Amino acid sequence: MGIDEGKGDTGGEVENYKGIQGEGYKIIKSTPEQRVLRFIQAHRLATSGERLLVAVSGGPDSVCLLHILVKLQKELNVKLHVAHLNHQLRGAESEADAAYVADLARRLGVPATVAWREEHIDHSTTHAETIRFVNFVSDQILA
Fold first, then answer.
1. Is residue 112 predicted with pLDDT exceeding 60?
2. How many CB atoms neighbour CB 1 within 10 A?
3. Which listed site, 32, 46, 117, 127, has its alpha carbon 20 to 30 Å from 24?
4. DSSP reduced 3-state for 59
5. pLDDT tens figures, 36-92
6. C-alpha span between 56 and 34 (Å, rounded)
7. CB of 81 within 8 A of CB of 74?
8. Interior CA angle at 15 toward 11 and 19, to 5°?
9. All structural domains of the chain
């Protein structure tokens, strides 16, 4: 098997592999930051100069996304704002997530809005409530 390496126009390294039967494979190796940047640009998800609201639950996916967006914010020319809504569904774990998100945003230098539900609600209403909360925070930071 042979490998030809070089720079691709995708922002990542390109390796061309030849299989045992001569078939060719092109593998693009890129960082998560490069892939997120390409996705944002391809789908026009952020416009230069705007504020970008990042909903962070405290789980690994949203925390990873926040770290990547912090690294990309100068290149994208956006200002980030973190939003976290504690639905109080998991007691102390929910409290710990809210505290973690607030502390993480502070350490990353990103303004944050962290809010708590006054009462426990069932899982069926959390999605709609989260959308209302994100819309509320979005209206506040854009005002």
1. yes
2. 7
3. 32
4. coil
5. 999 999 999 999 999 999 999 899 999 999 999 999 999 999 999 999 987 666 677
6. 21
7. no
8. 150
9. 1-30 (no CATH), 31-142 (3.40.50.620)
